[in-house]
C-alpha cells in the first residue's frame, strides 16, 4: 500500500514535517490523520475497493490526502490533467468508468453533462484532524492491487490509461530513494503537476520511503525556483526537459546561493544538462522512462553515470535494443528500446479496458517503448527519439532530437521542434518549427548548422511560431506541426 510508510512514520516520528505548502507545514502524524478523515468521508460517498474515482485537482495538499485515502479504500485513482476540457475530458471520464469525481471549484465549468457524481475538493480534506482519535483499522491489500490509472499524453490518437499497481509505486519509492541517496533530512521541491507520474514516483514516493519532506509549489516558475529552494531548504527537484532548458536560458551566471544538490528527470538536451550543472553546481540525474515502465527504465546515479546518456538499467529491470524482428542488437547499434521486469509489480498492469493495445505493447514478452536508442559498450542507454517521429529522407533515418539539439544552441532560438513533411522525391523533407528570439534570421541557419550536423539533416523548411504545441507534461505534439499554418521559409530556394 502506498501509504504504508506514511503510517509507519506517523507512528514513529509523528512531529517530523512531511509537507510544506506556502506557510503551511503538515507533519507525518497530521497527514495520517487527514487521510483517515478523508477515508471516512469517501466511504460515506459509497467509495469501495475496485471503483475508479477521477480527480481534477491542482498542486495542493488535498491532492495527496485524497490519493492516499482512495488507496486506503482499495479504490483506483484517476488523476486527470486539469487543463482538459470538452470532448477530451468527457472521453477520459467515460473510458475510465469513474463513479465519482473529486474536483476543485475552478475546474467545474469544464465538466460535461455526463460527468459522474461530484465531490468538491474543499478545505474539509485539508483541515487538521483530531489527534486524539483512535487509530483506524486499515485494509490489507496485496501489492498487485491497482492503485491508479495514469493516462498517456495522447500526442497521437486517443490517450490510453496505464494501470499502475500499488507495488509499482512502492518500488519506485525504494529505487529512487536509493538512487538519489535520500535521507530523512532531505526536502524535495515539487512543482510539476501531481497528475503526472514524474512527481508521484520520483518525488512523493521517494520522500515517503526516506522519511523526507516535500515542498509543494502550485506550478513551475523559473524566476522563483531558486528563491523557493532557499525558502524551503530544498535539496533537489524533479524536472522535465523544458524546465532545465528554461532555467539554462535564464541563468546567465553561476549561482551558488542555494541548498540544491540534484535534479532528477528526463528529456534534457546534453548541452542544457551541462549548463545547469555548471551554473547551479548540482548533479543532473538524467533518466529515461515512461509511465508504463513504472516511471523510469534507466538512470544516471551517483554510483554510475555517463554524460549524454540516460543512464544504466534500473534495478530489477532487463533492458535491450532490438531490430524490426525483435532480434537483440549488439552494443552501439540503434533500434527500438524494449524492457521487462525481473520482479512482479515493477511496471504497469496493462492499458485500462484496452486488451489489444496491451498485447501489442507487450508482444514477445517485452514492453515495446516505441523509442529508438542504443546501448553502448559500458551498458549505458542512449535515447534517440520516438520511432514514429523518425524522418525518412532519401533513405536516411533521421532523429529529430539530433537536429533540435543543434538548433537550440543558436542564441536566437528560444524553442523548436523538428518534423518530417511529405516530399514526392525524397519521401520526406525536414521542417524546423522555431520560436524565435529578436534578431532571428532563418536564412542564416544553414551556415550555423554546418559542422554541427550532417548536411542531410539540415532542415529544408523553417516555420516561425509563437509557441510549440505541447501536452501538459511538456511532450511536443508533433502531429500538430506537419501542416503549414504560418509563413514558411524554403531554405532550398535560397541556396547559393
From TrEMBL:
Pfam families recorded: AMP-binding, AMP-binding_C
AMP-dependent synthetase/ligase domain boundaries: 8-352
Keyword Ligase listed: yes
InterPro entries membership: AMP-bd_C, AMP-bd_C_sf, AMP-binding_CS, AMP-dep_synth/lig_dom, ANL_N_sf, ATP-dep_AMP-bd_enzyme
Keywords linked to the UniProt accession: Ligase
Example GO molecular function: acid-thiol ligase activity
Ranges of residues in domain AMP-binding enzyme C-terminal: 402-475
Protein name: Acyl-CoA synthetase (AMP-forming)/AMP-acid ligase II
Organism: Azospirillum oryzae
Taxon lineage: Bacteria, Pseudomonadati, Pseudomonadota, Alphaproteobacteria, Rhodospirillales
Amino acid at each position: 500500500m502506498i501509504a504504508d510508510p506514511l503510517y509507519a512514520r506517523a507512528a514513529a516520528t509523528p512531529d517530523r514535517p512531511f509537507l510544506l505548502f506556502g506557510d503551511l507545514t503538515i507533519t507525518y502524524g497530521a497527514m495520517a490523520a487527514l487521510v483517515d478523515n478523508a477515508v471516512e468521508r469517501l466511504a460515506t460517498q459509497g467509495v469501495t475497493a475496485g471503483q475508479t474515482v477521477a480527480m481534477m485537482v491542482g498542486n495542493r495538499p488535498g491532492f495527496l490526502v485524497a490519493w492516499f485515502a482512495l488507496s486506503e479504500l482499495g479504490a483506483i485513482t484517476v488523476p486527470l490533467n486539469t487543463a482538459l476540457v470538452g470532448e477530451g475530458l468527457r472521453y477520459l471520464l467515460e473510458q475510465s468508468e469513474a463513479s465519482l469525481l473529486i474536483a476543485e471549484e475552478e475546474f467545474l465549468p469544464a465538466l460535461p453533462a455526463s460527468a459522474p457524481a461530484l465531490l468538491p475538493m474543499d478545505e474539509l480534506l485539508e483541515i487538521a484532524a483530531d489527534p486524539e482519535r483512535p487509530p483506524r483499522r486499515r485494509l490489507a491489500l496485496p501489492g498487485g492491487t491497482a492503485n491508479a490509472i495514469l493516462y498517456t499524453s495522447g500526442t497521437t490518437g486517443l490517450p490510453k490509461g496505464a494501470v499502475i499497481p500499488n507495488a509499482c509505486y512502492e518500488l519506485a519509492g525504494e529505487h529512487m530513494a536509493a538512487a538519489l541517496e535520500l535521507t530523512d533530512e532531505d526536502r524535495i521541491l515539487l512543482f510539476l503537476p501531481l497528475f503526472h507520474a514524474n512527481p508521484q514516483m520520483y518525488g512523493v514516493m521517494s520522500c515517503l520511503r526516506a522519511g523526507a519532506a516535500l515542498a509543494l509549489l502550485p506550478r513551475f516558475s523559473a524566476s522563483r525556483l531558486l528563491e523557493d529552494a532557499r525558502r524551503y531548504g530544498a535539496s533537489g527537484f524533479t524536472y522535465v526537459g523544458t524546465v532545465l532548458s528554461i532555467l539554462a536560458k535564464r541563468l546567465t551566471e553561476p549561482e551558488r546561493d542555494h541548498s540544491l544538490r540534484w535534479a532528477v528527470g528526463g528529456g534534457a538536451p546534453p548541452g542544457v544538462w551541462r549548463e545547469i550543472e555548471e551554473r547551479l553546481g548540482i548533479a543532473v540525474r538524467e533518466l529515461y522512462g515512461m509511465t508504463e515502465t513504472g516511471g523510469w527504465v534507466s538512470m544516471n546515479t551517483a554510483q554510475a553515470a555517463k554524460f549524454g546518456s540516460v543512464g544504466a538499467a534500473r534495478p530489477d529491470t532487463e533492458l535491450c535494443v532490438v531490430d524490426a524482428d525483435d532480434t537483440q542488437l549488439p552494443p552501439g547499434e540503434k533500434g527500438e528500446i524494449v524492457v521487462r521486469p525481473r520482479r512482479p509489480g515493477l511496471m504497469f498492469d496493462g492499458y485500462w479496458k484496452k486488451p489489444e493495445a496491451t498485447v501489442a505493447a507487450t508482444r514477445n514478452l517485452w514492453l515495446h517503448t516505441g523509442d529508438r536508442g542504443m546501448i553502448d559498450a559500458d551498458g549505458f542507454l542512449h535515447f534517440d527519439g520516438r520511432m514514429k517521429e523518425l524522418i525518412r529522407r532519401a533513405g536516411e533515418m533521421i532523429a529529430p532530437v539530433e537536429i533540435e539539439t543543434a538548433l537550440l544552441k543558436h542564441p536566437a532560438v528560444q524553442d523548436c521542434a523538428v518534423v518530417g513533411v511529405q516530399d514526392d522525391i525524397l519521401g520526406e523533407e525536414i521542417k524546423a518549427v522555431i520560436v524565435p528570439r529578436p534578431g532571428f534570421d532563418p536564412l542564416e541557419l544553414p551556415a550555423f548548422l554546418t559542422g554541427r550536423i550532417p548536411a542531410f539533416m539540415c532542415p529544408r523548411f523553417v516555420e516561425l511560431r509563437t509557441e510549440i504545441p505541447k501536452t501538459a507534461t511538456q511532450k511536443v505534439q508533433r502531429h500538430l506541426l506537419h501542416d503549414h499554418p504560418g509563413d514558411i521559409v524554403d531554405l532550398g530556394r535560397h541556396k547559393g
